[in-house]
Specification:
The protein contains 20 helices and twelve strands. The chain is of the alpha/beta class and about 525 residues long. The strands form two sheets. Strands 2-1-5-7-6-11-12-10-8-9 form a ten-stranded mixed beta sheet, with helices on both faces. A two-stranded antiparallel sheet has the order 3-4.
Length: about 525
């Protein structure tokens, strides 16, 4: 108990301001830590955000006040290995296997003086954007308990959105930082691959190379993300993991930006009206106050989704992922998503052939036929990697032709009803595209779903008026008041430029477009 501490004031501080007050002695480390622990306890009683006991904060007592993150509390996605604690990815068979040492990113944070004090919940296997597993239960969205906080860093999104952490570290292989940030109304950054070390992060899909796996910060505001990145990109990280590019954080460039925008592609799932209606005005608003925007639709998105993203993830027919479930319980949220992998291989191609003439299921048939009908040979996998390289080259070429620096585009939003992400895994293509390309991408909340949006949702049919479109409508129903976010993107290694653009959007979001 801290009767003399103004908990509300502490919880309202950004990471930069909190760290400054801790270094200057204006706030005691104990008061700050206990305030956040108490807030965590109040949130956990109904939301299942956390994954066990508090981390051993006492080990950091000797840190000098000169450290940039001196005694700043930090929450961690469950996947990050912390010495003496489990990293289970929600799998029962991974319980009681405590890490022998800290992951590199935790070692760096400790050197910076931060206090990792709690781990947060994840979906089982981390390959889903709901947040449920048999070990720690179903995490709910604190803005609406019928909705998911997203995943895979869903516990982080919910905890930060609920005020229980000033800074969290999540992971992202297809949107796992950005989707929870979008669903919970916070900010999050997926950095360029190899900008932050991933040594000491457990994974259920070792060997997957088609989508870049990264770690990145999540916080209430963009400035906290930038402050975290500037602290992390230091010599300690470069020494601990020589595979990380030794590029310190660069101060933002002050030149005018050239920007692009797109809303959606008719080759994938159509976004709901709450996204389209609120994002469209930004293409008129930004040129008036910030930068010139040109239309830049991603090339060949149908090909990118089915031939590059899904084929890359499923190159082994799901064998590596399913191996994690042998002798384990499978969470109900995963059963629809993983069911095709469990169909006998010979039956998959027959089933997809039968489904093709069924007008409401053409994309389901395409997915089964193009992704799951067989395992890829080594030669086919090499050819697939070559196709990804060509697509990335062409994407960047089109980007350069328009002299773009940054891109404003949608993220999956608003939050889905619990249980629906596994039925709509293809909808993650709005974020997975930038794991394929390995571009830095971040999320900024800009508005909320209105009652008018909810009424207009009733007429949503999508481009195909098929099972996926109707399922999407069901998933976002009942979302009045939930956050609507945008995604900001830059070229590889331009993470600082991405953050600058995110900050401009964040500021402009307070001046609502007409």
């Amino acid at each position: 108990q801290n009767p003399d501490v103004d908990a509300r004031s502490i919880l309202s501080l950004s990471l930069r301001n909190l760290s400054q007050k801790l270094r200057e002695g204006a706030l005691s480390p104990e008061a700050v830590l206990y305030t956040y622990m108490e807030k965590n306890s109040s949130l956990e009683t109904t939301s299942f955000l956390l994954t066990g006991k508090w981390l051993p904060c006492v080990t950091l007592d000797s840190r000098a006040p000169a450290c940039i993150l001196y005694r700043a509390p930090l929450s961690l996605v469950e996947l990050l290995e912390y010495r003496g604690h489990d990293s289970t990815a929600g799998l029962v068979q991974w319980l009681d296997q405590p890490a022998a040492e800290d992951s590199v990113i935790i070692q760096v944070f400790k050197k910076l003086g931060a206090i990792p004090f709690v781990k947060t919940n994840v979906p089982q296997s981390m390959m889903n954007y709901d947040c449920s597993n048999p070990t720690y239960g179903q995490t709910v969205n604190l803005l609406n308990p019928k909705k998911t906080p997203g995943g895979s860093s869903g516990g982080e999104g919910a905890l930060i959105g609920g005020g229980g952490s000033v800074l969290g570290i999540g992971t992202d292989i297809g949107g796992s930082i950005r989707i929870p940030s979008s669903f919970c109304g916070i900010c999050g950054l997926k950095p360029t691959g190899n900008r932050i070390s991933v040594v000491g992060l457990a994974t259920c899909t070792p060997g997957l190379k088609s989508l870049t796996f990264t770690a990145g910060p999540m916080a209430k505001d963009v400035d906290s993300l930038a402050f975290c990145m500037k602290a992390l990109l230091c010599q300690d990280m470069f020494d601990l993991d020589p595979r990380v590019s030794p590029i310190p954080f660069k101060d933002e460039v002050c030149r005018p930006l050239g920007g692009g925008w797109y809303i959606e592609s008719k080759q994938r799932i159509q976004l709901t009206v709450s996204v389209i209606g609120h994002l469209l005005p930004w293409k008129e608003f930004l040129p008036c106050v910030s930068m010139q925007l040109v239309h830049f639709p991603p090339p060949r998105m149908g090909y990118c989704l089915f031939e590059l993203i899904l084929k890359g993830v499923s190159a082994d027919g799901g064998l590596t992922l399913l191996r994690n479930f042998k002798g384990d319980f499978m969470d109900p949220s995963l059963k629809t998503q993983l069911f095709p992998y469990m169909i006998p291989r010979a039956l998959r191609s027959i089933l997809s052939f039968i489904l093709k003439p069924v007008t409401r299921w053409p994309r389901l048939a395409e997915g089964l036929y193009g992704v799951l009908c067989k395992n890829r040979s080594v030669g086919e996998l090499w050819e697939h990697h070559h196709e990804v390289e060509i697509y990335c080259k062409n994407f960047i070429s089109e980007w350069k032709k328009l002299n773009l620096d940054v891109l404003l585009c949608p993220c999956l939003t608003p939050a889905f009803t619990i249980g629906y992400p596994g039925k709509l895994i293809a909808a993650a293509s709005y974020t997975a595209l930038y794991n394929l390309l390995d571009f830095p991408a971040g999320i900024v909340p800009v508005t909320t779903v209105t009652q008018r949006d909810e009424e207009e949702l009733k007429g949503h049919r999508g481009y195909f008026n098929d099972m996926l479109d109707s399922t999407l409508r069901e998933a976002v129903e009942g979302g009045v008041g939930l956050p609507v976010s945008v995604q900001c993107v830059a070229l590889p290694w331009q993470d600082e430029l991405c953050l600058r653009f995110m900050r401009e959007v964040e500021v402009l979001a307070t001046q609502k477009p007409a």
